[in-house]
Every structure is written in structure tokens, then in C-alpha cells.
From TrEMBL, chains A, B:
The gene is plsX. This is Phosphate acyltransferase. It is found in: Cytoplasm. Its EC number is 2.3.1.274. It catalyses: a fatty acyl-[ACP] + phosphate = an acyl phosphate + holo-[ACP]. One of its GO terms (biological process) is fatty acid biosynthetic process. Homodimer. Probably interacts with PlsY.
Amino acid sequence: MKTIAIDAMGGENAPQAIVDAIVKLRKEGSKTNYVLFGDDAKIKASFPKDDDLKNIKIVKTSEVIADEDEPVRAIRSKKDSSMVVAARYVKEAKADALFSMGNTGALLACGIFIIGRIKGVDRPALMPTMPSAKGDQGFNIIDVGANSQSKPEYLVQWAQMASYYAKVIRKVNNPSVALLNNGAESDKGDPLHQEAYNLLKETDLNFIGNIEGNEVMEGKADVVVTDGFTGNAVLKAIEGTASVILHMLKDSLLNNGLMPKIGAALAKPGLNALKKRFDTARHGGAVLLGINAPVVKTHGRSNERPIYYTLKQIDLMLDQDLVGKYREFFKESN
Amino acid sequence: MKTIAIDAMGGENAPQAIVDAIVKLRKEGSKTNYVLFGDDAKIKASFPKDDDLKNIKIVKTSEVIADEDEPVRAIRSKKDSSMVVAARYVKEAKADALFSMGNTGALLACGIFIIGRIKGVDRPALMPTMPSAKGDQGFNIIDVGANSQSKPEYLVQWAQMASYYAKVIRKVNNPSVALLNNGAESDKGDPLHQEAYNLLKETDLNFIGNIEGNEVMEGKADVVVTDGFTGNAVLKAIEGTASVILHMLKDSLLNNGLMPKIGAALAKPGLNALKKRFDTARHGGAVLLGINAPVVKTHGRSNERPIYYTLKQIDLMLDQDLVGKYREFFKESN
């Protein structure tokens, strides 16, 4: 039996959106157990009145980690927070995975300091699945900010974990792996990236070499490996650019007289198709890889839909025993 | 009298697009002298038959640096290339500025090794002007890739040069300067960015603190300062994302039946307004700051329009004696 520990207080739409996603999953036949941590009255009230709460457990906690809290300090001082208590449940093997929409830094700290690293993994890293120009399949990018300082060896471990994830969770055949760098040639970049290139070349990964920032969204690689500082900046730049352009597009269509307005209405099926191709929800949340259990983060503004897909993603990671496979791999390679 | 040395062989549309831009500028009354380097017959043939070639000088060169050439090797071995000979003209004070659409790395090498650094500037850096959600004004971002390794002190010098550029060339009143980092708080980032933050705080720049990748395109700062590795990745990620989305938009409007097609036609004024707001041409090219003369690069696929604006931008830099002002500043501060 799988059990997912859920911080039911993090995120703008918590706990209602989380409960809605769970209700939908159970209707579809999910047998997973969900333990929700937080304000028990509020969580209970979010379920439909006639719900039998089958497979649901609610654990009352008295504190909440806010987005503006300093992560490490917060998980030390707010010991009865929904996120920390949920993480402790996973540590004590009362749950198999941790999900939260709250403070990203605090969730990373919960993963690293409470649940703990997989033996042999130097540094856990954060990995979302992004949409690309190639459409449905998307790509993984790791690390997008769990580490502000990286070493070449970390990048190799991240590439190994991400490649395996792409294969068994996203069902990509022989995933291609590329190093984000400032040029195509093998000698490009600073010493960190030059050395990472050389190490990646020696692995049995399907390493296709360097990739530049403009090629990432084209879907040139199934897995993009990068140091956490650059990865963080690039991921945010992609999100910011997409948001600014789509906002400007809407604005330009609505504020240039009647014709563009009518045009936009007629073009709706096309615009919806664009929206669908750029849909990040279907891929689930960002995973903190290298931790002794799946730890997954979804955007704080998420509504039911991305949460639904994230809970399915966690189910799949548990079914595939992803963390167990990582444990074996890093045991053998040490 | 101002003289601009132009590598007339670099770029897909050279030399015709360059000649068209010059013809237009002269029609508008430009008194600037243009020296064009390259295939003299081809350059001459690009001018209208009845052109008196006033203010034009053509210098015949026999080689061209290709985009795929290794930069430093290329400028050493192709001594009679249009780019190298043009750079030497500037070095020898026969011209005041250098413009090229060719190999970016080779142009940086020409700037650094042939024309030379301003005394007191540790490392020259590349700086484009980007459009932002705020509209017309845009923002500067420095360094976007002249340096793959950076030190905190470099970032401070870049911020100083970029801030002055924003003030006198872009006419921004008291330009705000932000540091690209992985969080808002002052202690964020790796040691490089933490130290850069502390140094920037001590300057008399209008330093507004850290900025994250998603805020760059929102236009939160007039000048974004970043290490060359991250800046390169972020700039390319922005360009790649914009290109992928606009391409997908076109595709979605044209391939979803008749209605979106008609809609797109009606929406055209709105889509054109979007295009105009996202117009990078008006801001001119990317400038290599810290060199003893303006050295400016425009995209290799540029047509007449961005070249026209870039030549005007160079005129303005010469009129304002930008490089002279930098020289004074770094003389005093050393």
C-alpha cells in the first residue's frame, strides 16, 4: 500500500485544491493512502459532505511555514508545522513520499535534513519537467536551484538520476542528456562545466554534448544538466519570458480596437491549442532527486489540475520504486 | 568628423543590408564617414548605380572570418579578414568605432586584443539592450558572454559602465541597477554573487538589490548585472523561449481550421502591436563595453532595419564621447 504525506497548508489554494484532486483520483479508482497535515477542521470541511474519507487520514498540526520564512530556520523552529510533521512521517516510514506546494527552500531542507540523502548521492537536486517546442514529451532540467554551488561530480550524479527518471517515469527511450553551456564545443565554459563535460563523456549515458540556452526550449535534449545557479536563472527566465509574452499577446489583442478582439474570439481554438502545447501541469511537479523518498513540489499558485497530475506522478515513482533503484545504483557505483 | 569601421562581410545579408542602411542614413542627413571592409566589387555593386559614394570609403580585404571559426585562432591567422583589418583601422585611429555582424567571439577578440582595453577596466563585457514588459524603454543586461569566469569586482565595473550607458545613451533618469541572483535576500547566491552584492551596495549606483530570472523581462531594473556564464544562458533562454512561443502561436493559428485563420487575419493589428512591443531592433546592437572604442555586434541574421538603428546608436555613443567618459572614470577610480 502506498501512502503519500501531503502538506495541506502550503500554496494559495490549499487545502481545497488538494482535496479536489484527491476526490477525483479516488473516483478514478486510486487505492493510494493520503495523509493530510494541517488545520484538521478546514481540511475535513474541504471534502464533500457525504465523503466516507476512505484512504484518507488527517493529522492536525498547529503551525504553517510561510513563503517568506527563512527555510532552515523555519524547519527548526516550526516543529509542529504541516510540512515538517509530514516530512517526519516519511522519515519514520509511516508514509512513502512527500508532497507540498509551500516554501520551496523549506521543502528542500525537509528533504535533506529530515528525510535524508540517498547514500552515495553527494547533493540532492531539484528537477522539473518542462514543455518544449517538440510538443508532448517535454524535457527534464536538473538542478534548478537546490544548490547555489556545484561540483562537476554532482552534475554527473544528477544526469544519471534524471536520465533514469526520463526512462521509467516519462517512458523516453534512451534519453539524450546534454550539458547546458555557453557554446557547442567541448572546451567551452568555465572549469566546472569543462570538467563536467569530460566526466559525462565517460559515463554510459546517451550524452550528446553541450546545449546552449536558446536550444533548451527547442527540445534538443530529453535531459538538460546544469549547475543549480545557472539552472535556477534559466528556468525562471523561461517562465518569466513565457508569462510576459502571453500577457502582452492578450493585451495586444484586447486593446487594439474591435477587429483584433473579434479575431481573438475566432482564433480561440488556435490559442487554446497553443495553451495546451505549453501546458506544464500534465508533467506533474518538480522532484527533489537524491532523497530517500520522492519529495515533490508544485507551484504555490497551483489549482486542482497540476496537483492531480503530481499525485499521479508520485504514484508512478512509487510503483517503479524509483528511489530503491537509485539506492542500488549509488551503492554499486561506490 | 566621426568614422565608423564596418566589417562588410559578416552576417547573412552583408553587404547589401549594410549598404541599404547607410544609404538611408545619408538620405536623412548623416555626415558620418563609413569605411567598409571586404570584397570591394561586391560592396560597390550594392550601392545604387547613381550613388556618389560621399562619406564612403571601401577597403579591399581578401579573407572572411566564418561563424564556425575558433575566435582567437581566426583573428591571428586571418590577418587580411574584413573584421581584423577594420579593427586595426580603429586601433590606428583611422576610425572611431567598429561594427560587425560576424562571429561574436572573434569580434570580442578583435576588441580585446587589437583595439585594447580601457585602462582600469579588468574585463570588457558584452551588453545588449532588451525589450521588457514595461514597453519602450527596455533594459540592459551585462555580461552576456564575453567572460565565462567572473569576479565580483568585474561585475561592479560592468554595472558602472552600463548604468552610465543607460543614462546618456538611453536617456534613463537615475537608472536602477539589479544583480541577477537566485533569490531576493542579500545573502543569496554563491560567494561570487554574495560578494558582488556587498560591493554594489557600497557604490553610488542606484542599486536596488537582487533580481531573479523571472523578473528580468518584467523590466524591474534598467540595468541587470550578471556573471558572463549565467548572463549568456539567461539571454539565450529568453531569446529561445520567445522564438518558440511566437513560432507555436503562428502554427496554432494556422493549423486549427478556418476560424483561427480568419481570426488571425482580423487580429493582425493586435499581433503587429505585440511584435512592435517586442521589437529589439530599435535599441541597436550589443556593445562590448570596456574597450578603447565602441565595438558593436548585431545579430548575424539582421536586415537593414537593426543595422540602421545600430549605426545611429554608434553615432550617439561617439557624440556623447562614451568611451572618453569611461576612460576618465576608471582613471579617477584607480
